[in-house]
Amino acid sequence: MHYVLTYDLAPDYLERRGEFRDAHLKLAWEAHERGELLLAGALAEPVDQAVLIFQCDTPEPVQLFAARDPYVTHGLVRAFHVRQWNTVVGEQAATPVRPA
Questions:
Q1: Does domain 2-85 have CATH number 3.40.50.720?
Q2: CA dihedral angle for residue 49, residue 69, residue 25, residue 39, rounded to 10 degrees
């Protein structure tokens, strides 16, 4: 199953992230090495949101990631949202659907 974690970033995110970036990246790469986090990054122009794509059986690892993320705990993220993503096209799709 895939999950999308979106972050609503604080207006001063770019100015403040340097202090917490190594800890955030450490957490992210550890999740990637466990096979949970597939891709992650901030959206550009404007830098007001970030998107993280997870692959796991339940939303709990995603919620735990957000709860432990220094960007969240130090207020660089104003809000986060976890949503199940029903993937149907692509080699990594959780439930591939092909045309009849």
A1: no
A2: -50
Tell me the average pLDDT across 37-65.
97
3-state secondary structure of 24: helix
Residue 30 pLDDT:
98
- Cβ of 27: how many Cβ atoms within 10 Å? 16
Overall size of the chain counted in residues: 100
Assess whether the previous peptide bond of 70 is cis (omega < 30° from 0).
no
Strands 49-55 and 37-42: antiparallel
pTM over 0.85: yes
H-helix or E-strand containing 36?
none
pLDDT band at 57 (very low <50, low <70, confident <90, very high): very high
pLDDT at 4: 98
